[in-house]
Amino acid sequence: MEIKVFDSVQKVGQAAAMIFAAQLMKNPRSVLGLATGSTPIPTYQQLIALYQEGLVDFSQAQSYNLDEYCGLSHEHVCSYYYFMHEQLFDHINIAKDAVHVPSGMAQDFDAECKGYDAAIAKAGGVDLQLLGIGRNGHIAFNEPDACFTHGTHVVSLTKSTIQANRRFFDSEDQVPTRAITMGVGSIMAARQILLLATGEDKAEAIRDTVKGDITPQVQASILRTHPNVVVLLDREAASLL
Ligand code: PGA
């Protein structure tokens, strides 16, 4: 696990965007694993700027997002599908049919989960997976648990995650209580992983991930067993290391 600490949120975003740009330069047909939340927004802004300057080209890339709320349609402003279009896809030249977000409106979630894993495998697996981290150490929506779950699955969100995500909704009771998420096994199958954390409220989760036991109670701790993980932090998120 390679850990780099920067003195601003913007620099974390710039560094992450540089890693994505290098990946696309090396392999224009890369399969990108993308994440939502506040943390990746500066990365997406930097990637849009690099695209506008002609330095990065998404025309042959594919993307798979980590997760989606159950019950929110693509048009819902709080859905992750909507977020990704607003924050990134609508501003770059990635093909419309090359972007994938699990469906929160599936009739049959079991089939949706299996189909999502099969599509990633058919695409050749994820080359570069972007991750944020929850205050409770979750990655994607893999919440603290008694075990690590391998493939894409449906989860019940913890109270702390619902409260953390409440800021995007009008009220807490509008935050969905379930989500469809890639499993830890699917995340660990990526060839390279880029974990970002910014802000003081991520310091404990980062300390537990980097220095604590490898345990499903801190799902991100399993990343220490992956051979190619880069962790980009600002000073606040790194303050307990
Ligand atoms: P955040 O979410 O970037 O909005 O803090 C990260 C996460 O919960 O994984």
Describe the structure.
The protein is α/β, with parallel strands linked by helices and 241 residues long. The chain has one domain: Rossmann fold, CATH 3.40.50. It is built from seven helices and ten strands. It is globular, with a radius of gyration of 17 Å. The model has no long low-confidence stretch (mean pLDDT 97). 2-phosphoglycolic acid binds next to loops.
CATH architecture: 3-Layer(aba) Sandwich
Into which percentage range does the β-strand content fall? 15-25%
Please provide the count of β strands.
10
How far apart, in Å, are the first and last alpha carbons? 14 Å
Shape category: globular
The CATH top-level class label:
Alpha Beta
N to C succession of SSEs: EHEHEEHEHEEHEHEHE
Q: What is the number of helices? A: 7
Rounded average pLDDT? 97
The Cα radius of gyration reads 17 Å
Report low-confidence residues grouped into runs of 5 or more. none
- CATH topology name, in short, is Rossmann fold
Helical proportion, percent range: 25-40%
The side-by-side strand order for the widest beta sheet comes to 1-10-9-6-2-3-5
The structural domain count equals 1
